[in-house]
Each structure stands twice: as C-alpha cells, then as structure tokens.
Amino acid sequence: LTTEGSETIIIQIRTGSTSGTLVATSSTVTVNDTSVETYAVSPSVSSVNEGSSVTWTITTAGVPNGTTLYWTNAGTTTAADFSDSSNSGSFTISANSGTITRTLTSDLTTEGSETIIIQIRTASTSGTVVATSSTVTVNDTSVPTYAVSPSVSSVNEGSSVTWTITTAGVPNGTTLYWTNAGTTVGADFTGGANSGSFTINTNNGSFSLTLSNDLTTEGSETIIIQISTVTVNDTSVETYAVSPSASSVNEGSSLTWTVTTGGVPNGTTLYWTNAGTTTAADFSDATNSGSFTINTNSGTISKTLFNDLALEGSETIIIQIRTGSTSGTIVATSSTVTVNDTSVPTYSVTRNVSSVNEGGTVTYTVTTAGVPNGTTLYWTNSGTSVASDFSDSANSGSFTINSNSGSFTRTLTNDSTTEGSETLIIQIRTGS
What we know:
With 432 residues, the chain is mainly beta.
C-alpha cells in the first residue's frame, strides 16, 4: 500500500552461492506502483445548531488498516465552541473508513453563524492536508429571552407587589434593570424609587415594591414594569512599559527590568523574550525567555550574566514584553542594555631549564587565566635556533589548554656541525 513509483526486477544467475560468479543476467522487469492513496471527507449535515452534533465520514483507498490520520478545523469555530474544548485530533482507518464526531457547546454568547471545515492530515495535526470537507454552518441559538409578571393585577395603597422575571440564555449573575412606565411616580412607593436593578440566577430574578398609604386622593394609578439591559463599555485600554535598572552591565553582574502596566488585572501572566545579541548561554539560568506576574500594575524580570571565559566583545540585551505566550504579541520593548565583556585572558610561559646541550630536551609550560578548556594555542621560536636544530625539524607548533595549563617539549638535534651557542625564545600566539 506504499506509493513508491515504478520499480525494477533484474535477476542474476550465480554459481556456487548467492555471492558466487555471475553467469547470466535477465532483462529488466518493471513493477508498476498501483498503490495510490486517496482520501475524501464529508459531513453528515451542512448546518447544525449549537448543542447538536455532526459526524464526518472519511473514505480512503490504499490506506492500511490501523493507520492513524489527523484532523484540524479551518473554520471560524474555536476549541471553546465544542464540548471537549478541542479543535484538532486523530482517528483510525479500518476497512478504508473512519469517522469524526463533534458536539457543539450550547453557550450563552451571541456570536452569529460560525463554520466548521475539517481538514484531514497525515503524520500529525500539522502534517500534509490530504482532504478538506465542505463547510458546515453552526447556527447561533443563544438568543436570550425575557418575561416579567406581577404577583397581582391590582393592589391597594399600603400593600406590596412582587415581579418575577424569567429568562433563557442569560448567564447567572447577570444584572438587569427595571423602570416604571405607569402613572405612579417614586413618591408613590415607600422607598421613593421608580427604577432599580436585580440579579438573574438560574434564569430567574425578582423584586418587590410597596405602595405608600398616602392621604391624597389620586384615583386609580398604574405600575408598568419595563426590564432592560445595560451594556458597559470597557474603556480600560491596557498599557505596558518596560525599563532596565542600568544601561550597561558587566559579565557576572545582575540586572532588573521593571514592567509598568495600566488596565491589566492583578495576577495576569506576561511573557518576555530577549531580542539582543546575548543568548541563553550568557545567563546564569541558561534561559533567554520566561514569564512573570503583574500585581498592582507592576512586575519585574531579573537576570544574572554568566561570567564566562569567552572573548565575545560587547553584547546587548533588549527585553520584549509579550501577551499570551513567549511567541505572543509584543506590547513593549526595553531600551538596549550593553553587556561589557570582562573576560580578559592572561598568558605566561616558563621553561624547565635555562640552558641545554644538543641532544637534550626543554619543556615549556604555559599558564593561562580566562582561557576556556580545549583552546588551541600556538608557539613560534624567535631565537637563533632554526627548524633543523630540532629532532622534528619544526620551529613552530600548537598545543591545547586544559584547566588553564598546557605544555610542549622541544628536543635538540645532536648534529656534527660546530655552530657556537644558539638560543630558543618561545612566543605564545592565539589564532595561528
């Protein structure tokens, strides 16, 4: 069932064994690949109400039993619109068929029509799309309803009336408001109010009014209660700013960024990333992004620079504040902090003897500070001796630093030439 393209069979005849002498070769037989996998997906309906379910049937050809395929939703619905709070998943193919069933949440939010478009993928939920369903329209059934009824149709002055409000599709804790459109006025009630509010719980709410037993002859009056909702517009535009405690810092030191916000609730998690030239390895905690919490419109980020042994020159830290995640929207960017490189290495070289006869050896020990393990250093000889004066015919070379130390040995050739005294002066070099 694998799509491989055309393949060939060429038979070789051998004597003795399967690795023996080749005595004949057949002509080529071409194997035609007929395993072309196909995929199709179709929904059980073209539209569905919130609270109902839809099933998608996936039909395949050339796909082995037990194959796991994946689905994602490219429609306008989100995970929150489904009872299992997911917007992607997987299923298994058996006998060239598989199904996906999704149940819509009957929420209380008026959203208008939304869509579901199922994409079938191979390998993972981010894999290749091999089939896309037709669009299913999700009908928004969350239109709230309201009804209000009084406990009596007439009442004497001095008595009370209770109004019961029955709703559908109105969340618990919703505040509704009442006004009186009848001929009675505030002075006709014991509290002097002609409007007010109440709270809906489990689709019900109520309030009561008591008529004043005044001494004025007014004739019959009326009470007509009107229920209304009030939309509160959120004018709290969130603001963000971030500033470092210093504009430059040495390796090995610490720095704090203060994040100041406006209109951001206590307990909100914000995220930071570093857009400077420093990397995670430059910090003591080996991280280059993270999160922090806002309380009373403030939060902080503290970082300690690693005092490494690498010569890097000046580097920078630029903190970006993000919402949602470390890849979320950037809402503030700090000024640049310069990291001063304090890793100035030192080198010294000593020899084990101050004079040596031809045929003898000299060992040089190189001691360093601030030079990383494994660093290759180089030596040259600026004395009067030349390459031919040494057993390896070399007048330069290299060695490795470990634990701030390295060494190398030079062996003099015991030649037959009278040259007089000569000198070795070893120079230690970086780079080459």
